[in-house]
Amino acid sequence: MEVLLRDVSKVFPGGTVAVDTVSLHVRPGELVVLLGPSGCGKTTLLRMVAGLELPTAGQVTLDGRPARTVAYSGRDVAMVFQELALYRHMSVAENIGFPLRWAGFDDAARHEKVLEVASALGIGELLGRRPSQLSGGQRQRVAMGRALVRNPRLFLMDEPLSDLDTQLRTELRTEIVDLVKDLGATCVYVTHDQTEALTMADRVAILRRGVLQDLGKPTDVYTRPATLYVAGFLGQPRMNLIEATVVVSLDQHVALRMGAQELRLPWLHMQARMLARYHGERIAVGFRPEALTPVPPDTTDNVLHGRVLYLEHHGHESLAFLDVGATAVTIDETGYGDPGTNRGRSRGVRGMLARLSGRGGRPAAASEEKAVERAGAGRHERARAELTIRLAPYPSIGVGHPVAVAVDVTRLHFFDDAGMRIDLARR
Ligand SMILES: Nc1ncnc2c1ncn2[C@@H]1O[C@H](COP(=O)(O)OP(=O)(O)OP(=O)(O)O)[C@@H](O)[C@H]1O
Predict the structure, then answer these.
(1) Is 353's pLDDT higher than 50?
(2) Ligand 1 atom with minimal separation from the 19 CA
(3) Regarding predicted confidence, which is higher, 116 or 6?
(4) What was the pLDDT predicted at 425?
(5) C or N: which end of the chain has fewer Cβ atoms within 10 Å?
(6) What residue stretches are annotated with the ABC transporter domain (predicted)?
(7) What's the pLDDT at 250?
(8) Residue 361 vs residue 168, higher pLDDT
């Protein structure tokens, strides 16, 4: 089934703009994940596709017909939500088979279909149990079974795995993809978990404050994010985002000045000439930790020098957070839980994100005040970290240690003052 959203907005009474002029085309058989932090409008968007909510403006159509008509009229659309609504007084088999009763299947046909779906989901042994006798993961499978049994052409799933532990989530997300693909159904899947989005989706749609920020294959949105917001949102550890002034030396190179240090892109470098038109301007430069390699201190050419502010040991690797004397560009609402990690320091490319969303946003001055507050002792020291690098587990260096890192300038990301990717056209 084809899902088409044309300039869809939803404003709730009271004035909350939950969804802001979103256009999205989900092709038949495609699995599109709506990703974004809490409150960005994912559920509202999904509910409009389900016909449960009417848009304030724009249109939502399913195979060319208004969503509400399709969802109400047939059995083509199935929904799975986080809050499972299993019938407690019914067995697993009755729960799964329930939609078939409505569709007029006789007992034998229903039984056969339930068995088929239950064994596909690995719950064939549990058909006689009540929901209260099941684990969370098993209950989730039953809910999935009830949605699957109707052979729907469109699945709408809203954080169906969010109550489960990590291992079950990992298992079930693969199963969901397989099941949906086997059925040839279209699927719109809502989550705030970027791993889920990047592993499951054919394409990911990233929302912030109701505005669609990026739409593309997982590899595209990760390797070439369309906006500064997406650059900061996707990836763990997050992408380093540093403010730089562009200085052109004609026919030689384009320098990116970051505090007292600079990186140089040779003039023949593909991106150098594209950056040349920003001569004298400030832009945001992004580089993921994987583009940075520790090198001996006397190495020249595109090396940044810094000092270790703190280290984090993750077992398989350690992360070092360096102060390189430059200004970090930070993004609020990245969905990260730790308030100490660079957040609030949005001096630099000022109010970039407020403008990006076209409204709201914390004024830069307030953010600067917060940054000052955080520059004190304790965990708020972390707000000073400007460059995250990956190291082998438990390295011999410690806090305060000088470190030189070579920057792979072919893996830089550039964003303009409005937070838009400078070379978006090449994606
Ligand atoms: N019925 C409603 N009336 C008023 N405001 C609403 C209503 N439903 C949602 N909102 C608001 O609309 C915005 C988007 O909410 P929505 O539930 O779509 O976000 P979400 O991205 O799904 O969040 P979460 O991940 O926390 O579920 C929020 O600011 C929310 O408070």
Answers:
(1) no
(2) 14
(3) 6
(4) 63
(5) C
(6) 3-234
(7) 85
(8) 168
The answer to whether the beta carbons of residues 44 and 18 sit under 8 Å apart is yes
Which residue owns the Cα nearest ligand 1 atom 31? 39
174, two tokens? 């693969």
**What pLDDT does 76 receive?**
85
CATH topology of domain 3-232: Rossmann fold (3.40.50)
Answer whether residue 383 shows pLDDT above 90: no
Q: Which residue has the higher pLDDT, 29 or 371?
A: 29
3-state secondary structure of 282: strand
Rounded to whole angstroms, the Cα distance separating 268 from 271 reads 8
Query: Given this model, what pLDDT does residue 426 score?
Result: 61
Cα separation of 327 and 283, whole Å? 11
44 lines ligand 1 (CB under 6 A): yes
Give the per-residue pLDDT at 339. Answer: 31
Average pLDDT, the chain: 83
**Residue spans of alpha helices (H) in 224-378:** 228-233, 270-276, 352-357, 364-374
Please give the share of the chain, as a percent, with pLDDT higher than 90: 56
Task: Tell me what ipTM this predicted complex has.
Answer: 0.97
Residue ID of nearest Cα to ligand 1 atom 4? 12
Burial classification of residue 73, based on how many CB atoms lie within 10 Å of its CB (0-12 exposed, 13-18 middle, 19 or more buried): exposed
The minimum-distance atom of ligand 1 relative to the CA of 43 is 22
By CB atoms closer than 10 A (0-12, 13-18, 19+), residue 108 is: exposed
Ligand 1, atom 13, residue with closest C-alpha: 18
Give the H or E element holding residue 65: strand 65-66
83 or 327: which leads in pLDDT: 327
In angstroms, what is the span from residue 43 Cα to ligand 1's centroid? 7
Residue nearest to atom 1 of ligand 1 (CA): 12
Cβ of 18 closer than 6 Å to ligand 1, yes or no, is: yes
| Cα–ligand 1 centroid distance for 6 (angstroms) | 20
Domain ranges, ordered by start, for the chain: 3-232, 287-426
The helix/strand/coil state of 51 is coil
Instruction: Judge whether 169 and 141 are in contact, CB under 8 Å.
Output: no
